């Protein structure tokens, strides 16, 4: 046993009764009220995983396509990818560069470094009252969102609750989206096990694990894509080394990446 | 709520006391004996996640590098990637093609379609009694391994227990390994939510989720890389549509993949 976590049962507990989120919602207050009244009461060492979408909604990250004018580049690209030129314009504004595109597919490097389809700009589950043709962007800075939530929970509850902002992203090589961490606070996003002995007491070779991503994927199992009733999950039973890091640590440097 | 799973708590329970696995071990008997005696008693609807390594060990998938002669191609490539030419020879035998390589990095398409480093050939946690310089290959056919375990558990316990064989793999774009499903039986590896209404009753756009991969990642949180005491995890509380599929369904066709 290298860590107490490994013999402990892990529990993932949905926080029931999260309402549709309006811009300006104080998520710390909302989550504290719900968990204090209906449970689960948050504990030191819990990880709170929030769906990106509710964080974006609370931050009011809507853009109304009806107000967007597509530039030349968006017009040309929209033809290739068969998407609304105004949507492509919004995607380009959120992106550092386009990595791949073909009909119905537009893979970009987001301005924050995430590689994902459509820069995370989403037309599903977007509140239609937010404009004539509203779309929703990723949070402005998901690591900062996670940090503010982590600090807010500590202030309000005097508990050390780690926070992950997750989203379901597509992948190279494999089909299906999986939950990944866009933002993290209060835990190490990446865990370095290199140098630890293996079972036969030789040093382990490659052992950096995407800890926050695995937690994000686990929580995603309970969130469901079309179900905003469970966008907040409590993960209980993990332990980790004291040193925390942001989810930005999970991003491979473009220059070291053989697949972009 | 689209599914009963979403309101239910999810539990991940390590199966304690799994010994070091020898070639020929009957994993069904071993797991039944341990779970019957010490718990957790397996139930209908449980998912049993097994680390690839114990499945490979039970299948005796050892190769002794001392018996391997590197061919010309392996010799040339080993120079570029700075690995033992005999190890590179074994990796090439397990692979359809080399996708990328540089010093210390060798990314291949495995003969079964997985894209991963070193074709999954592993020198860590390998029983040193299995040869002068033993390495361990992936299971011969992890979907078949999962199916045999699934059927064996049904026969022995008269319970419907889904099975996933997982491994920790690296990824494009992001650092850190995450658990993925190499084999699956008794559940849909990929779940297609397309066509379901979103929160505001419009059709969801892209909603195929890597269900088995998210379960594999969740279980990986409890397994630990250097800790073979917890290579078997019970995941309890998920529900899924009746239609099961193998993990091969998670593999993107090479011709549709923009990143290989």
Topology:
2 copies of one chain form a homodimer.
Chain A: E1 10-14, H1 27-38, E2 47-51, H2 52-58, E3 62-64, H3 72-81, H4 85-93, E4 95-102, E5 105-110, E6 115-117, E7 134-136, H5 142-157, E8 162-169, E9 178-185, E10 191-192, E11 208-209, H6 211-223, E12 232-236
Parallel strand pairs in A: 2-8
Antiparallel strand pairs in A: 1-12, 2-12, 3-7, 4-5, 5-6, 8-9, 10-11
Helix pairs in contact in A: 1-5, 3-4
Which CATH C-level class of the largest domain in chain A is it? Answer: Alpha Beta
Rounded to the nearest angstrom, the radius of gyration of chain A is: 19 Å
Summed up, the helix count of chain A is: 6
Mean pLDDT of chain A: 91
How much of the sequence of chain A is in beta strands? 15-25%
Q: What general outline of chain A do the C-alpha atoms trace?
A: globular
Q: Which structural class is indicated by helix and strand composition of chain A? A: alpha+beta
| CATH fold descriptor of the largest domain in chain A | 60s Ribosomal Protein L30, Chain: A
Low-pLDDT sequence parts of chain A: 1-6
Which pair of protein chains has the largest interface, and what are the residue counts?
A: A-B, 84 and 84 residues
Our measurement of the CA-to-CA distance between the termini of chain A, rounded to an integer number of angstroms, reads 38 Å
Tell me how many strands of chain A there are: 12
The biggest beta sheet of chain A is recorded as: 5 strands, mixed
Summarize the amount of helix of chain A as a percent range. Answer: 25-40%
- Along the chain, the helix and strand elements of chain A come as EHEHEHHEEEEHEEEEHE
């Amino acid at each position: 046993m290298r860590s107490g976590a490994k013999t402990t049962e892990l529990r993932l507990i949905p926080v029931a009764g999260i309402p549709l989120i309006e811009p300006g919602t104080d998520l710390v207050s909302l989550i504290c009220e719900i968990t204090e009244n209906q449970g689960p009461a948050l504990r030191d060492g819990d990880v709170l995983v929030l769906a990106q979408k509710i964080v974006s909604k609370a931050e009011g990250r809507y853009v109304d396509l009806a107000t967007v004018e597509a530039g030349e580049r968006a017009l040309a690209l929209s033809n290739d990818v068969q998407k609304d030129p105004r949507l492509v314009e919004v995607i380009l504004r959120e992106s550092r560069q386009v990595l791949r595109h073909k009909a119905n597919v537009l893979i970009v490097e987001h301005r924050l470094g995430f590689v994902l389809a459509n820069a995370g700009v989403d037309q599903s589950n977007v509140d239609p009252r937010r404009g004539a043709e509203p779309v929703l962007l990723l949070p402005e800075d998901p690591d900062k969102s996670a940090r503010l939530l982590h600090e807010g929970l500590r202030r309000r509850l005097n508990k050390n609750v780690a926070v992950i902002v997750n989203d379901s992203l597509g992948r190279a090589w494999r089909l299906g989206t999986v939950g990944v961490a866009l933002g993290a606070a209060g835990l190490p996003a990446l865990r370095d096990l290199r140098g630890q002995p293996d079972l036969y007491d030789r040093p382990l070779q490659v052992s950096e694990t995407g800890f926050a991503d695995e937690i994000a994927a686990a929580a995603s199992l309970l969130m469901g894509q079309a179900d905003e009733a469970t966008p907040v999950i409590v993960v209980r039973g993990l332990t980790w080394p004291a040193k925390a890091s942001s989810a930005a640590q999970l991003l491979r440097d473009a220059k070291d990446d053989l697949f972009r």
